[in-house]
């Protein structure tokens, strides 16, 4: 039995190429999916569909009839792969895996997004070189995307890569309610943290400045409530808002327990309590 590896942008195209390669219908092929396709983000992490295929062996004419009947039963039972039936399981598996990974790592990203270290251990010239390298990489990423971005500036200090991005499509890069901003900052954080051991602070145009002004107004009555009652919590906050609120509340209440919590529906909110103390 001859087996061949087929690569294509989608599973449907892979099945078609396999059918053409063996000059037979899909039902006459035995295949295994090695890799599901993914579109990626801004052209990164994109991957093709990969299958390993072989033509089913038919020993004689009587066996061919039996095989044909068996194939029809198998097709009826499992259904021949179609556009929606192939893509949906792949998307569900990938999205579920990515969602679980995002949840498990999200607190680390949120807690360290505004992290700082007075003694970073890096000299000025090293920071300049790091900033230049990171800046060039992000600039290439922006140029390969569909967004018109003409400004990418990076500075490294206090163990944080401060990234500023601006351009005609800055608002589009942020996205409605900051969903593209959240995705980009998460992706850049993981890259910068893994490769350079740095944390990340990303500003696109004046997005963070605007969000900070909005969250300050929202936190005023909550801060008054905490000062009066000693504890409190925020409503569920999205993306960058929970990050900004966490920083401001920790600055305001350095002697209290201030932490991000995740609800059953995976939304994020901040709780503020007194630290537990045990009398000896």
The gist of it:
With 280 residues, the protein is of the alpha+beta class.
Describe this structure in words.
It is built from 8 helices and 9 strands. It has helices at residues 11-22, 61-78, 83-112, 124-144, 170-174, 179-196, 207-229, 239-252, and strands at residues 3-8, 29-35, 49-55, 151-157, 160-166, 199-204, 232-233, 256-262, 268-274. The radius of gyration is 26 Å and the shape is elongated. The model is unreliable at 75-93 and 98-122 (pLDDT under 50). The strands form 3 sheets. Strands 1-3-2 form a 3-stranded antiparallel β-sheet, with helices on one face. It has 3 domains: 3-93, no CATH class; 114-205, GMP Synthetase, Chain A, domain 3 (2-Layer Sandwich), CATH 3.30.300.20; 209-274, Ribosomal Protein S8, Chain: A, domain 1, CATH 3.30.1370. With 280 residues, the chain is α+β, with helices and mostly antiparallel strands. Helices cover 50% and strands 20% of the residues. Helix 7 (207-229) crosses helix 8.
Layout: helices, strands, pairs:
Layout: E1 3-8, H1 11-22, E2 29-35, E3 49-55, H2 61-78, H3 83-112, H4 124-144, E4 151-157, E5 160-166, H5 170-174, H6 179-196, E6 199-204, H7 207-229, E7 232-233, H8 239-252, E8 256-262, E9 268-274
Parallel strand pairs: 5-6
Antiparallel strand pairs: 1-3, 2-3, 4-5, 7-9, 8-9
Between the first and last Cα atoms, what is the distance in angstroms? 75 Å
Number of structural units classed as domains: 3
**SSE string:** EHEEHHHEEHHEHEHEE
The radius of gyration computed from the alpha-carbon positions, rounded to a whole number of angstroms, is 26 Å
Secondary structure tally: strands: 9
Contiguous uncertain segments of 5+ residues? 75-93, 98-122
Q: What level of helicity do the residues show?
A: 40-55%
Mean pLDDT: 75
Beta-strand residue fraction: 15-25%
Per CATH, the architecture of the largest domain is 2-Layer Sandwich
**Tell me, what's the shape?**
elongated
């Amino acid at each position: 039995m001859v087996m061949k590896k087929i690569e294509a942008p989608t599973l449907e195209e892979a099945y078609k190429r396999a059918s053409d390669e063996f000059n037979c219908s899909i039902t006459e092929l035995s295949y295994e999916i090695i890799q599901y396709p993914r579109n990626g983000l801004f052209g990164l992490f994109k991957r093709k569909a990969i299958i390993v295929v072989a033509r089913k062996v038919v020993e004689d004419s009587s066996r061919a009839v039996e095989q044909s009947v068996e194939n029809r039963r198998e097709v009826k039972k499992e259904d021949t792969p179609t556009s929606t039936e192939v893509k949906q399981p792949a998307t569900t598996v990938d999205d579920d895996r990515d969602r679980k990974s995002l949840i498990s790592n999200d607190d680390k990203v949120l807690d360290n997004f505004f992290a700082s270290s007075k003694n970073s251990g890096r000299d000025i010239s090293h920071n300049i070189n790091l900033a230049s390298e990171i800046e060039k990489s992000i600039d290439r990423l922006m140029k390969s995307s569909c967004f018109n971005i003409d400004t990418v500036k990076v500075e490294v200090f206090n163990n944080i890569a401060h990234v500023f991005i601006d351009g005609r499509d800055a608002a589009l890069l942020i996205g409605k309610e900051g969903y593209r901003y959240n995705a980009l900052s998460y992706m850049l954080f993981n890259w910068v943290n893994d490769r350079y051991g740095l944390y990340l602070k990303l500003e696109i145009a004046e997005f963070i400045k605007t969000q900070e002004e909005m969250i300050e107004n929202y936190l005023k009555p909550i801060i008054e409530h905490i000062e009066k009652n000693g504890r409190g919590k925020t409503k569920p906050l999205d993306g960058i808002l929970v990050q900004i609120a966490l920083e401001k509340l920790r600055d305001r209440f350095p002697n209290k327990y201030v932490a991000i919590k995740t609800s059953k529906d995976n939304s994020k909110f901040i709780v503020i309590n007194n630290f537990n103390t045990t009398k000896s």
